Amino acid sequence: MVxxxxxxxxxxxxxxxxxxxxxxxxxxxxxxxxxxYEEGMRLAARCHRMLEQAQLRVTRLREELGLYTGxxxxxxxxxxxxxxxxxxxxx
Length: 91
Hints:
Layout: H1 9-25, H2 30-64, E1 68-71, E2 77-79
Antiparallel strand pairs: 1-2
């Protein structure tokens, strides 16, 4: 099991892959399977949080650098128009 320390995303993901592989192989006792499932769910949640934090950091950096203007139809920020390619929203 991986502890709640400064473990990298890559380490957590590798461990999650190991857990999934063991569960898929089968042949585990009920308690061992439940323990592995619980560990896998915790690992998946930690990986998800780390990815969300990374995405937020990238979004903030792009906003700070002025690489985003408002949101598009999807509600997601769209890249700033740089004038090199015609922008259909400006027509």
